[in-house]
């Protein structure tokens, strides 16, 4: 996936603070949504790039959760506090509303127990943010019509080696959140790192949602 600087993407103000590394496009949107000083839990945090930026530019505190050994080492090198753990093993070590925001970026499609993960996110955090590849993008439909499973920048795997288990369209995900009793508070859609406003369900390659428990 291409990287862009948060400022040059126009998604985060240029004076938002020090940006040590470029942010992935979905991370740039997520970074804009998170208030300065927030307590953040980043699930499946990868190399810790988002959490490192939030600490440096937003004064946020919190943890990453990651299972991959190399990614955990990258987090440590970036100065990110990280818990090495499978997120599907549960978040019981964290308290109710311990965090202002819980993030799950470009990882939900690889979870086995997707409903459990979303429910636990909404318990340990006041707000959740999820980004995922939009399976409803026109190219995916076109690939299937040609008799092929789609391979794209957001889903760069063949059918036989993909880690993706639960692919969703924009409508699927919105219905899922409502089924869990979660209220959508924000949406953003991207294609090749650029915002999509018109027909996002068909034109966006990535979808990003923020949500909270119903009151």
From TrEMBL:
Entries under Gene3D superfamilies matching the protein: Vaccinia Virus protein VP39 (3.40.50.150)
InterPro entries to which the protein is assigned, alphabetical: Methionine_synth_MetW, SAM-dependent_MTases_sf
Pfam families for this protein: MetW
NCBIfam families on file: metW
Protein name stated in the entry: Methionine biosynthesis protein MetW
The species this protein was found in: Zeimonas arvi
Gene: metW
